[in-house]
Amino acid sequence: MTKGRLQLSKSIRSVCLAVAAALPLANAHFVLQIPTSLGFSDINEVQAPCGGFDIASRNKVTNWPIGGYPIGVVSTHPNAHWQIRAALLENTEEFVDLIPNIVQDGLGNFCLTRVPGIADWVGKDAVLQVVQRAVDGELYQCAAIKFVEGATASVPGNCRNGSSVVASIDPDYTGPATLPTGGSAATTTTTGAPASTSTGSSGTNKSVHPPMLGLLATVIYLFDSLFDLSGVL
Ligand SMILES: [Cu+2]
């Protein structure tokens, strides 16, 4: 490695290396742990769409109930912006948001307990893409998935939140994603009991129009603030 390259690399990595020492995954920007990813490469994670891995790889396919499946990551970046998307394998040019974008503070484990599937895609080969935008720019990890009928999947014990992790829906999000009923699903609770909120109506996913999102994010944020989640965050 040349001196110039080394210095560039050092400056890019300085922030996440500073905190990586405290985490089991040294040097990693972020690692998708749940569901099983297509693979992780620290160096190639900046490459869209899947961090350097073949988007068509189907070595381990996760069945993803429409009712929701957990996403668990470990991040070494303190201020991260997350985009959770999926594409059909037959059309990997077109990713669709599964939930509104998430903003997250804090380091370490981060768990979204209940990310809904796309009912129209049941039975088709699909790819989950998790995009993190943070200090190192955009980073990518993918997983081979297939949406299936069914209620919310259980959350494994290793899908959890670091003690300092706080997350909420990005108030600037204006995209088309639907929000799961009982909005706390899109935030960071790891218990299996995301109580219904004022946003809940039916058991199906609810379309949220852009003007609603700011209010909704506020509601969810307040909702979470009202409850003592210190034991599960
Ligand atoms: Cu990094």
TrEMBL record:
Main localization category: membrane
Compositionally skewed regions (Low complexity) per UniProt: 177-204
Chain positions covered by the region annotation Disordered: 177-206
GO CC terms: plasma membrane; side of membrane
Topological type in the membrane: Lipid-anchor; GPI-anchor
InterPro entries from the UniProt entry: BIM1-like, BIM1-like_dom
Name of this chain's protein: Copper acquisition factor BIM1-like domain-containing protein
Keywords from the UniProt entry: Cell membrane, Glycoprotein, GPI-anchor, Lipoprotein, Membrane, Signal
Location in or out of the cell: Cell membrane
Copper acquisition factor BIM1-like domain ranges (all copies): 27-163
